[in-house]
Structure formats: C-alpha cells, structure tokens
Fold this protein.
Amino acid sequence: MKTLATSLCFSALLLSGAAEAQTKSSPRPAGKVGNATARVTTAQPAAKGAAPVKAAAVAQVAPAAPAPAAKTVVAVAPKATAGTAGFGKGSMAVNLGVGLGLGYDYLGNANLPALNLSVERGIIEGIGPGTISVGGLVGYKAYRYNYPGTDYKATWTDIYVAARGIYHYNLTENPKVDTYAGISLGLRLESWKDTYYGNDYNSSYGGAYAHSGIFVGGRYYFSDKVGAFAEAGYDMSYLKLGLTAKF
C-alpha cells in the first residue's frame, strides 16, 4: 500500500509540472524577429533601369541647394564732362570761313567778305574744367571805294597773321558741341592805293601794325570729323562763319 501511495504522489507531481509548462507562453524565436526587422528596413531591389528607392528618398528629404545665380557685370562708359566734351587734349581742329563786318573802320562801298583759315590743337587739360589750345590764324580782307560818276577807285587790303590762345569749356554735355573763348595777337599787313589823285599825290602806301583781338565761338559737328563754326569778336571781322574739320 505504501508503495502504491508513493507512486500515485509522484505521478501527480509530474502531471502538475506538465500542466504548468503548457500554461506559460513561449518567447518568440529571435530569428523570426530579426527577419521581420530586415523586411522593414531593407529596401526592395530596384527594377532594372530605375533609380534606387533609397537614393530617391534621400533626394526628396534633402534637395540640393540651387546654385547661386551668376552676377552680370555691365560695363558703363564714363560720362563726358561738360568741360571736355567736343574738344580735349590732343584734339586738332581746322576752321575755314568768311568774315562779316567792316573791321578796321574803312568806309568802302564794295567790300568783300574776309577769308580766314585757322588751326589749333589742345595741349593742356586740368586747369579748371576745360581745355587750353593754341594755334594760329591767317586772313585776308579787302575794301574798295568807287568814286561816284568816275572810274577812280581806292582799295585797301589787309593780311592778318596772328597766334591764338583758346579756352574750351563746353556749356553742354553734348559731345558734338564745342564752345570756347580766346584772344589773338599778331600783325596786320596793310596796303592802300587810290587812283583818284594820280601821280600828283602819294597814292599808295603800306605798313605793318601790331593787332590784338578777343572772340567767343562755338562748333557743332555733323559727324566725327566735319562740322560748322561761328565766332564773334574783333580781330579781322566782327563775325566769322564757316566749316570746321576735327582730327
């Protein structure tokens, strides 16, 4: 009996241990957890010719910063100043014109316009806002007086040779315009002849006289080389008009 009771107790203990083992949940195998993680984090293989999914995701999250726009540099020509526009250092101009007005106080009644040729070159800048030029002028002026009712006449001729100093200050910003003022100093070579008095009178004479003048003028250039000029003042005539060439 004792042996049977002992056997029954041992069997009961085994059955209770087995039941307890069945009621406890078994932990999930580590290998299965690892496989699930791998399926979540590993990207699927890209199709042939397509960009990888991982690279596309990175491009969407952090797009490349746009390259800075290139700066455009525009060259701007220096603006011509009022003092140098039209005539500057090294510029050279030649005037060919006619002069109007009596000049020299002769009272002829058949006066011809004065002819004049002048040339100048810019030599100095930086003294004030303008340009200083030097040059010269050669002119010819003739007067004639016809005695009424006779064939007698008196004639005066003057050749004027002078040096000129000119200050160019353009009153505008137009490079086609050149305005200036100047002085002249030279010699007036005069001759006179009168046929009324014949041989009984010293009817001809001549001489050389120092002469100075002052003038203002302006030029307007139709092109880079050719233009027109006008001068008012007193040297050979009160007003000069003509053409000008620039070199």
